Amino acid sequence: MEDRTEKLKAWARDLAPPRSDVRIALEVIGRRAANRIVLEKAENYRLDLRKANLQGAELRGAHLEGADLWEARLEGAILSGAHLEGAILSGAHLEGASLGEAHLEGAFLGWAHLEGANLVWARLEGANLVWAHLEGASLEGARLEGAGLVVARLEGAFLEGARLDNRTSFTAATLRGAAVKDVDFTPIALTQDQIDSAFGDGSTKLGNLKRPAHWPSADLNGHEFEEEWRRYLSNPASYVPPQDRA
Q: Are 241 and 215 in contact (CB under 8 A)?
């Protein structure tokens, strides 16, 4: 799983950027004046970028609020700090994309492909991620209050410090091999099977759920935790937590 994610990230990094004319158009769109964005919102206007090929595009900090990016190709795109509040990204391809600190509040990401994407400190409050593919994605510190991750695929995802609340839904989500250090699951409904398939440590709060025997019992520092997590991913069946090693 980990090797596949790294290969995906490397592939996304090597993608050629859009043609120069496309890049210029994107710069104009992404840097529209604030009063123009307000007018668009008042008139219920959406940027129509459905199925657009924007692989490897530089869209750092771009204003794409409410844009329709249905099935857009954004593999390897740089969207760090971009404003995508309320955007439609259903079925979009964002494999290996950089979305660190991006604003995705209320965005629709159902069926989106975010494998290996960087969503560190991303704002995903109220986002809909039903059936989203987040395998190997980094969601460290992501704001997931009110987010719907129903049937989402989070195998091998890194969720350290992600923020949840009682509106966050992981119903039928797959958490196999997901790193959940410093995550408080007490406000949400989660099954024992989901927790048993994940990897946390003494910092993970579980409420009434039983702490899995394969988790380190101590609150490890970041480096120690990542080392143990990667060791677990390499061979879950034979992994022994630090407290049980001779």
A: yes
146's tokens:
């009110």
Q: What is the distance between the alpha carbons of residues 118 and 122, in angstroms, rounded to a whole number? A: 9
User: 10 Å Cβ neighbour count for 4?
Assistant: 13
152: pLDDT strictly greater than 80: yes
pLDDT, tens digit, 9 for 90 and up, residues 94-149: 999 999 999 999 999 999 999 999 999 999 999 999 999 999 999 999 999 999 99
First to last CA, the chain: 28
The rounded distance, in Å, linking the Cα atoms of 244 and 100 is 37
- Altogether, the residues listed in the chain come to a count of 246
For the chain, the average pLDDT equals 90
Of the CA atoms within 13 Å of residue 152, those in its CB half-sphere come to 28
67 closest CA partner among 114, 119, 107: 107
> Which domains does the chain possess?
1-190 (2.160.20.80)
Distance from the Cα of residue 217 to its chain's centroid: 26
The letter for the amino acid at 107 is: A
- Has this prediction a pTM greater than 0.90? no
Question: Would you say 212 and 193 are in contact if contact means Cβ atoms under 8 Å apart?
Answer: no
Determine what percent of the chain is predicted with pLDDT higher than 90.
79
66: left (phi over 0), alpha (psi -120 to 50) or beta: left
Dist. CA 206–CA 184, nearest whole Å: 7
Helices (H), 100-218: 192-197
